[in-house]
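Chain A, query sequence.
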Amino acid sequence: MPSPFPGMDPYLEHPDFWQENHNRLIIAIADTIMPQIRPKYEVAIDKRIYEITDPNDSNSDSLLVGIPDVAIKRQSNNPNIPTGSVATLTITLPTTVKVPAPEKIKQTYLEVREMATKQVVTAIEILSPVNKRSGEGRITYLKKRQSILGSLTNLVEIDLLRKWESMPILNNSIQSDYRVLVSPSDRRPFAELYAFNLRDSLPIFPLPLREEDVEPIVNLPEIFACVYDRAGYDYRIDYNREPVPSLSEEDRVWATQLLQEKELRDN
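Chain A, predicted structure.
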C-alpha cells in the first residue's frame, strides 16, 4: 500500500522512524543507480561517526549537565551525636544529574567511485537531524560539504526534514519544506535546487558523473514508494496522531482532510 501523501510522508520524520527510513533510502538509491552505472563505477555505502561532547548543545538531552539548585539535607537520628547548644550535623544526600558523556551518532552516505582509480566522483547525502540542528554535528558536516564543493567531486544532497535550518545556498530567499541539491563540479558555483513542499511530489533528477557520461536518473518517487511498501509503514504508522514535527495550521487542515478521505483517520 502506498503512502497517502503525494510526496514525502511527514510521519516518517518522527524520531521513531527517521533513522530506519534514512538507511532504507540509502540502500534503495544505491540499488537503483548501480545497474545504470556499471561497470565503470561502483557504489559504496560508507559510514560517518559523529562524537558530540558539547555540553552547551541543547538539542540533545544526553549532552546536558544537571546541577541541583539546593542541596537536600536531613537531620541525623544518631543518638551519639550531641544536641542542645552544639550545632546540628546534617548529611547531604546525592541528586541524580547528567554529565556530558560523548554521544556517538552513526550516519550512512553513498559514494560513486570510479572502478579503475577508486576516485570518488559523486557523493550522495541524505541529511539527518545531526546535520541540520546547530552544534558540532552541523559544523562537521558543513566542513565536509565545503570540501566537496571546492573539489572535483559532484554532490547530491537530499533534505527530507522540515525542521531545523537548511543547508546554506547563496540565494537563501528560497523557502520550501524539502529540497534536493544537485551540484555538478563542472557547473559550480551554479547548482540545481529542487525545492518542494508537503503537497508536492518528490523530484526525479539526473545523477552527475563525469562530463562524458550519460547521467543515470534517480526516480525518487519510485524509490520512496518501494521503501514505504517494503518497510510496511502503511500498518506501522498511526495516522490518527499528529506528525512530529508538527505541521503548520494550513498543512495540518489539508493533511487531516487527506487522511480522512483515504479512511486513515477518524472523522
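Residues 55-76 have pLDDT under 50 and may be disordered. The first helix runs from residue 15 to 37.
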